[in-house]
Amino acid sequence: MAESEELGIAAGEAQAGVRAVAGTSRGPVLGPPMVEYLLRLGDDRLILGHRLSEWCGHGPILEEDIALSNMALDLIGQAASLLRLAGEAEGTGRDEDALAYWRDGVQFRNALLMELPNGDFGFTIVRQFLVSAHSVFLWEALLAAPHAGLAGVAAKAIKEAKYHLRHTSEWVVRLGDGTPESHGRVQRALDDCWRYTGELFAQDEIDTAVAALSFTVDMAAIRSRWDQVVDDVLQRATLTRPADAAMRRGGRVGRHTEHLGHLLSVMQIVARSHPGATW
Amino acid sequence: MTLTADAAWRALDGVPDPEVPVISVVELGIIRDVAVDGTGAVAVTITPTYSGCPAMFEIEKDVRSALLAAGATAVTVTTVLSPAWTTDWISESAREKLRAYGIAPPGKADGGALVTLTRARPPVPCPWCGSTATELRSEFGSTACKAIHVCTSCRQPFDEFKAI
Question: Do A80 and B81 touch (CB under 8 A)?
Answer without folding.
Answer: no
